[in-house]
Design a protein that fits this description.
The complex is a heterodimer of chains A (about 525) and B (about 700). Chain A has 18 helices and 14 strands. In chain A, about 45% of the residues lie in helices and about 15% in strands. Chain A is globular. The longest helix of chain A has about 40 residues, at about 75-115. The radius of gyration of chain B is 27 Å and the shape is globular.
Chain lengths: ~525, ~700
């Protein structure tokens, strides 16, 4: 054996030497041949068991295959983790100190720059003031007035953006609360528009200040807090009751979206963004007039944000309130046995957390079963990875693939004709679309990841380990074989959602926290 | 059984009393020292759990969460600032933070403590603080949560100083070790050799080892003090309240040093023997020499177990709602007219520095009238003016506002803020007085340390303050009539109008009064010069005069350390330095210990400043009982001469020498009277009388 290894080593050395000596054109050709000969790399994780550890947890080796020797060849494996963790902590402290100093200098500089290039800022401010005037003038008033701030809001043509914020606004309005909505972000234009009966003011953040200068509020709620919104709010914090909803993107670490990075540059950008976010949330939590409450959609998400942002949210300000599931819209009708063969997938395929690739794998496995012919699959959605459905499943006649946005009313109608909701996942802080389907009596088929176990268990759905498409498929096959079990899970799913995410447990509780409990509820 | 996690950063009597209360009430207590160990020791905490920063890291949070998982904790109490910060980071809240005296005594450059307080503030919705002084500190450090008065574990109703030995314990915090030594030396001289004097560092009355063994605090305290009959408690700190509360049944045999914090406690417990510095020894001597007071057999010593349930008290307190800016201050709880004590500078526990002492003494007297403190700094003004407005809006009558400026004017923003409040206060029927310490910004110095621009700004801000705030009050006050004249001179020179000034000189604090005859047995005379010897306080003439005095006259200089060298050089030049008669000391006046039973106070100031100023050392000399020698052209001359407090002399060597001889021969018969009439209490009475 040692002889063989020596020979390999010698051959490798010779090959490398010849390669280096070859002309550039030849080297390029060799490279192309080698690349073509290699197994095709994919930006999706492998779906085989190699990506799942023996304990069922996800295995990140496919994306970050790092071994002890990559850290250093002289370390014992027991010291590497504490070494990196403690150094990371010390670096964070140093970074914070340096950033504070930098910020002070930046502020001095920006004061000077504002002085010299004030005209642009002034114009934006003037526009914001005019828009705020126009916006407020046409807004209805009430004894309880609430301001909703967010990074974006749904609008015609972009309906996927923060639909659950819109659902909340509709609930507040229905309860007789006057609600104003202002959105701010780095790439949000100054605008005033209406969506589904709600008027929205948008811009870079000056609009928030202008609105707050002119109008007093019972309270303010913020979804997807960003620096723009925070800077605009800061001067008013001492006299405002501010409540933050922490949903996901704005407060999570880069590792939560590891499946999405296609190259090292994206990875680096994500790490930098995470560190920025960690510092930002530290500033928020340490502000002398920090928000009155931090609202998380699940307890798992609360713990995850504590981990991700390296902070500890004060327990006396923390609330866990799930997203409201409208059981009037997603009402439950007992399913017919045959509906267990009707599978539905409706989701964004914009990133890998929604695991469209696992869904594909599940359907591929099911396609080999004897029941496949009885089965009917509907797939509706959009996003970067959506075309993969067509590529992999387009060949099946019983798979209907529609690349489009489906409004809530239509989704509710689709729920009526389907029995199983295929919703594999890599990261869900709650899983609103899954809960809506459960509310309608669809049996969810999903993975035991992130907050999912807080909302689904084996009594209310099919739950498999992380990345485990086989187990998901096996669960569906079991339902196909056992209509009683399907009926039991369907009923139980609908019941659980009503109890856990119904109006009383969510909207009413949330409005109580925000101090906007209405005298009348839903006339 | 209730399980309590008790987090501490240090262990002393304060922690001992909490621990003992929890145990007595049947709680299972898990004590964790946030320096990285369980008490008693249990397993090994990782090394990083003891780092100032790493123990607050996410790893620490997760490690600690696992460490306490099996303990099924029902409640958590944190004792001290750093334990609070630990709980904030590693528990996320749901704990009762106790902040003891001194926990907030740190400057902005102390990053660890600054961050620790920020951690605590972001996590708790109320703070328990020992008294209004600690609340002042919390406000100054930007606390935005309600401040509640500390609740203490009920002490055992028992006596501790039960020994028949007659020995005296001087109980001191480590920061006062040197002062304790000075007092012990003075006590030996004053009490005679037969009385034993023991020094006890206050934290040693209950140690970490005692808690590890599960010892009861009160039994331990009794054991540690068993050989003493009397005690003097010096200084202040986190354990003082606990120890003094425990010793309240021994109060007839207890002298308590009147630091700022101890003033509040002494009032609450009605402690009869209060003093500052060397006066503590004199006060103890009085106890020892008065059989009725000193008899330790008077009545049966008390020995009853404590009652009450500290945890239950905290639980109840945390179930109450408070407004965000609420502070459980005597002034807030009172329902009489709202009286306000305003000072640009905050109260500091100092026994030196004219400004600090004046602010402190005035503050103490206003506190006796349950006044509300506001200091001319942010975030103080924001929070306290908001609370004052809330009280007035709720129907409290506006009473008396008394304000003092500082050596530099406030910013225009703050002056405007205060001026607006004063307008509202007056409109509601309140009456006000503004004391102007000095107007130095109007003076022209030959060698100014500031740039022209800075001088111009000072001047402009100073005038603004006088016009916007001073002129808005009913009465303007100055340190003396001469000061008022000086102020008017400066104002006129600056193109401003003259004002009417009420003389409001510094006064006597009875707790500072010391009679050296009680402390020093050696007959003779000492000449004491205390203060700066810089240009303003030039003293060549005095040094020349003492050269020709009787060889038996002792000569002491109490000066700041940097001034010792120039003074030595001057004494060497005059051939006086090697003389044993001369001492150069760096003590504070409350600890100044002369070698003779008689001392003269030399206040010979050379500058123009002296003509209008009322040097604070004038009252210090009266407190110490030292006849005063001053120049006849000084601002204090009339006060000194007309009250028989000393004599005024001409500015020449012979006159100074003759003056000293006269003072030695005649003394100052007016001192005893002035000690009764020229007190801070009488000053404040005067203010209320004028403004009512």
């Amino acid at each position: 054996m040692p002889k063989k290894r020596n020979l390999d080593a010698v051959l490798t050395k010779v090959a490398k030497s010849l390669y280096r000596k070859a002309p550039k054109r030849v080297r390029h050709s060799i490279k192309s041949i080698v690349i073509r000969a290699l197994p095709k790399t994919t930006d999706t994780p492998t779906l085989h068991n190699s990506s799942v550890n023996s304990d069922g947890s996800a295995n990140y080796n496919t994306k970050l295959p790092m071994v002890l020797e990559d850290i250093g060849i002289t370390y014992d494996k027991t010291i590497v983790l504490p070494m990196l963790a403690l150094e990371n902590d010390a670096l964070h402290n140093l970074l914070r100190k340096s950033q504070r100093q930098l910020e002070e200098k930046r502020q001095l500089l920006s004061e000077k720059q504002d002085y010299t290039s004030g005209s642009h800022t002034d114009q934006r401010q003037i526009n914001a003031a005019a828009l705020a005037e126009e916006y407020l003038a046409a807004q209805p008033d009430a004894s309880i007035r609430h301001l909703v701030l967010a990074n974006e809001y749904p609008r015609v043509g972009k309906e996927y953006g923060n639909g659950f914020v819109h659902q909340r606004v509709k609930q507040y309005l229905a309860a007789g609360v006057a609600v104003d909505v202002v959105c701010a972000g780095y790439s949000v234009d100054q605008d005033l528009f209406e969506y589904d009966g709600v008027r929205i003011l948008t811009g870079h953040g000056e609009e928030i200040s202008e609105v707050l200068k002119r109008q007093s509020y019972t309270s303010v709620s913020v979804h997807f807090l960003n620096r723009r919104i925070w800077s605009a709010l800061e001067p008013f914090l001492a006299k405002l009751d501010v409540h933050l909803f922490l949903h996901g993107y704005e407060c999570s670490r880069w590792v939560r979206r590891i499946w999405n990075y296609r190259n090292g540059k994206e990875l680096e950008r994500a790490i930098h963004r995470s560190i920025d976010l960690q510092e930002f949330w530290h500033d928020v939590l340490y502000h002398p007039h920090q928000p009155k409450s931090y609202i998380f959609v699940s307890d798992w998400w609360r713990r995850a944000v504590n981990d991700d942002m390296r902070v500890t949210f004060p327990t006396n300000r923390v609330h866990v309130v799930h997203n409201y599931i409208n059981s009037d819209l997603f009402n439950y009708h007992p399913k017919e046995d045959e509906q267990r063969f009707n599978l539905l997938w409706i989701r964004s395929a914009a990133n890998r957390n929604y695991a469209n690739d696992i869904a594909i794998k599940v359907l591929e496995i099911l396609s080999r079963s004897n029941y496949w012919e009885r089965c009917s699959v509907t797939i509706i959605g959009d996003g970067r990875y959506f075309p993969e459905f067509e590529n992999k499943l387009g060949k099946f006649d019983n798979v209907d693939i529609q690349q489009r946005f489906a409004p809530q009313q239509e989704i509710a109608r689709l729920h009526k004709t389907h029995g199983i909701f295929l919703v594999p996942s890599r990261l869900d802080s709650q899983g609103v679309s899954r809960d809506e389907a459960m509310s309608s009596g669809l049996v969810p088929v999903t993975n035991r990841v992130a907050a999912v176990p807080e909302f689904v268990n084996s009594d209310s759905g099919i739950v498999a380990g992380p990345e485990d498409a086989k187990e998901l498929a096996a669960g569906i096959l079991k339902l196909w074989e056992d209509p009683e079990e399907f009926q039991r899970l369907s009923k139980s799913a609908a019941q659980r959602v009503r109890q856990q995410s119904g109006r009383e447990a969510t909207v009413e509780r949330e409005m109580n926290i925000l101090g906007i409990e209405a005298e009348h509820f839903y006339d | 059984m209730t399980n309590v996690l008790f987090l501490t950063a240090d262990i002393g009597p304060a922690e001992g009393s909490v621990y003992s209360d929890l145990k007595r009430n049947g709680r299972k207590v898990f004590t964790y020292n946030v320096a990285g160990r369980w008490v008693p020791r249990e397993g090994n905490a990782p090394l990083w759990m003891s780092g100032d920063k790493t123990r607050l890291s996410p790893m620490a949070r997760n490690w600690f969460t696992r460490a306490i998982e099996s303990k099924n904790i029902d409640f958590t109490i944190s004792s001290g600032l750093h334990a609070g910060a630990f709980a904030a980071n590693n528990l996320g809240g749901a704990f009762y933070p106790l902040l003891w005296r001194g926990n907030l005594d740190f400057g902005g450059s102390n990053e660890t403590s600054t961050d620790a307080f920020a951690d605590l503030l972001r996590t708790t919705d109320r703070l328990l603080l020992e008294d209004s002084w600690e609340m002042d500190k919390a406000v100054s450090k930007n606390s935005q949560v309600p401040h509640l008065q500390m609740r203490y574990p009920s002490p055992a109703a028992r006596s501790y100083l039960t020994s028949t030995s007659g020995d005296v314990a001087i109980i001191y915090p480590r920061s006062k070790e040197q002062e304790a030594g000075v007092l012990r030396e003075a006590a030996h001289g004053a009490f005679g050799g037969e009385i034993g004097i023991g020094l006890i560092e206050i934290k040693s009355l209950y140690r970490s080892g005692d808690l590890a063994k599960g010892l009861d605090f009160y039994n331990t305290l009794a054991h540690r003090l068993e050989k003493y009959s009397y005690a003097i408690i010096l200084g202040t700190g986190p354990h003082h309240s606990t120890v003094i509360r425990a010793l309240q049944h021994d109060k007839a045999r207890l002298v308590v040093d009147q630091t700022v914090g101890m003033v509040f406690l002494s009032d609450e417990l009605k402690l009869p023997h209060r003093a500052r510095g060397l006066r503590c020894i004199q006060e103890m001597k009085k106890i020892l020499e008065t059989p009725n007071d000193s008899s330790i057999s008077r009545g049966e010593p008390k020995h009853e177990s404590p009652a009450g349930d500290f945890l239950e008290t905290l639980n109840n307190l945390w179930h109450k709602d408070f407004d965000q800016h609420f502070e459980e201050l005597p002034a807030v709880l009172d329902d009489g007219p709202l009286n306000i004590f305003f000072s640009v500078g905050t109260v500091q526990d100092l026994t030196k520095g004219a400004r600090h002492q004046r602010v402190r003494n005035m503050h103490d007297e206003f506190f006796q009238r349950r006044s509300f403190n506001i200091f001319g700094q942010q975030p103080f003004m924001d929070r306290r003016l908001t609370l004052a407005r809330t009280m007035l809006k709720a129907g409290r009558r506006a009473g008396v506002f008394y304000g003092e400026n500082s050596t530099s004017p406030m910013t225009r923003v703050l002056n405007n803020y205060l001026a607006n409040f004063l307008t509202e206060f007056s409109r509601l029927g309140g009456r006000s007085m503004w004391f102007v310490r000095d107007l130095h910004w109007l003076e022209k110095f030959e060698e100014s340390p500031w740039t022209d621009a800075h001088v111009a700004k000072l001047k402009s801000d100073g005038i603004f303050e006088l016009e916007e705030v001073g002129d808005r009050t009913d009465i303007l006050a100055a340190p003396s009539g001469a000061s008022g004249e000086g102020f008017n001179g400066l104002l006129v020179a600056a193109g401003e109008k003259e004002r009417q000034w009420l003389p409001l000189p510094p006064a006597i604090q009875p707790q500072n009064i010391v009679d050296d005859t009680a402390l020093v047995g050696v007959q003779g005379v000492t000449l004491l010069y205390a203060g700066g010897i810089s240009e303003i306080y030039g003293m060549e003439l005095y040094l020349s005069a003492i050269g020709g005095l009787d060889e038996l006259t002792m000569i002491d200089f109490v000066v700041r350390e940097p001034e010792a060298e120039p003074l030595k050089r001057e004494l060497e030049r005059l051939g006086l330095f090697e003389s044993e008669r001369i001492r150069i000391l760096h003590t504070t006046m409350d600890l100044y210990h002369p070698r003779t039973s008689r001392t003269l106070g030399i206040i010979l100031l050379d500058s123009k400043y002296a003509k209008f100023a009322f040097p604070y050392k004038t009252v210090t000399m009266i407190e110490r009982g030292y006849p005063i020698l001053c120049y006849s052209d000084m601002g204090i001359a009339e006060f000194v001469v007309s009250n028989d407090l000393g004599i005024a002399v001409e500015r020449n060597v012979d006159s100074v020498r003759e003056g000293i001889k006269t003072l030695i021969a005649e003394g100052a018969p007016g001192i005893q009277k002035a000690r009764k009439t020229e007190t801070w209490k009488s000053r404040v009475e005067q203010i209320f009388k004028i403004l009512s």
